[in-house]
Amino acid sequence: MRPVKVENKQLIEGLFKVFREKGYEGASLNELAEKAGLKKASLYHRFPEGKKQIGMAVLLHSSEWLHTNLYQLLADKNIAATERLEMALSRISELYNQGKETCILRSLSMESGMQIFGEEIKGEMNRWIKYFAQLGLDFGFTEEEALKKGKESLVKVQGSLIVANAMSDTDIFVSSLAEIRELFDK
Amino acid sequence: MRPVKVENKQLIEGLFKVFREKGYEGASLNELAEKAGLKKASLYHRFPEGKKQIGMAVLLHSSEWLHTNLYQLLADKNIAATERLEMALSRISELYNQGKETCILRSLSMESGMQIFGEEIKGEMNRWIKYFAQLGLDFGFTEEEALKKGKESLVKVQGSLIVANAMSDTDIFVSSLAEIRELFDK
DNA sequence: TGAATTATACCGAACGTTCGGTAATAAATA
DNA sequence: TATTTATTACCGAACGTTCGGTATAATTCA
Prior knowledge:
Largest interface: A-B, 39 and 39 residues
Shape of chain A: elongated
CATH superfamily of one domain in chain A: Tetracycline Repressor, domain 2
Radius of gyration of chain A: 18 Å
Structural class of chain A: mainly alpha
Largest sheet of chain A: none
Number of helices of chain A: 9
Number of strands of chain A: 0
Strand content of chain A: under 5%
Distance between the termini of chain A: 58 Å
CATH class of one domain in chain A: Mainly Alpha
Helix content of chain A: over 70%
Oligomer: homodimer
Order of helices and strands of chain A: HHHHHHHHH
């Protein structure tokens, strides 16, 4: 069998960047192919169902990253809650390149994207809230308090990414991460 | 002179909704014209410079709404700070239809929109922060504290709109407005 | 009538998608 | 080992459709 020109991981990451920067409608097959290192027709060999399937693969890739690098950490009771929080914030900062890059969930959550990926995006946000709420419980908060903090952490990350990007001011993102820290551990 | 078929205000509001829901790339001229109640060519009569000009008009319309309905209120020293805050939150809730609708700044702030409207979006966010920071001063906070609260209010609104829309859960938006209240007046 | 507004028809370019064919490798055969 | 065969990966070219945009004619009203 002929070997692939671009490995799957590298391929998805190239596609991911285009969707994150341009959104679903803004990401053209030509640019997707270019950034992926393949021709347009070859993309259709890898993803026979086309653009929607590519978006889905990108979303799945993000979901796996979060599960491996964030959620598993947040749920690891062998690590003290304070340290878990610290590490989680550090990985979130890494994920969004210190606030210089937006979130794929936001990029794909305009109306056209929601019609295709609505359930996946909603599911991912629910997972974020759930795992941060779990951390809240480990910090000793009540279930209600913890759930609220889970939601606040998501709102802060999403909001600060929007504002930081629009204003070219990553300090807002960095500050928001600090506020999430204080939300749990003060 | 022949009267217009669709009045300017109504026209802009129709165009506004399309850009807010679909983003810049996702808003096609055919749909813009349809929702505006005009044909495409008639849109070009009203906006000879095309789509960019339409987006700019929509953005300006939003800016004026904010100035008239929010910023003037926030700066009105004849009203007690607490009441000003309360009224401001109420108008924000109205603006975003209790969290059921997103913010045009977010919709137009993907890469393609930022290249066209970057300065306008940045300016509008700065204005939001400035006026809420001013309110913070009136609440007796230091300049530094007030500025931080201004930024937090913007982050909370933007973030909660994203999450509320993606999760079809307007409670998150409502809660976030309550958190902004507590941020200033507790 | 004359000017303004709207509508029809159209344009080149770009869109997502498809297809026929070629390149590259592994497996099978001689 | 050398050659053929099968399988998969890739790509150029073209598809029909829609894009943003533009002529030009018809309509409307001062």
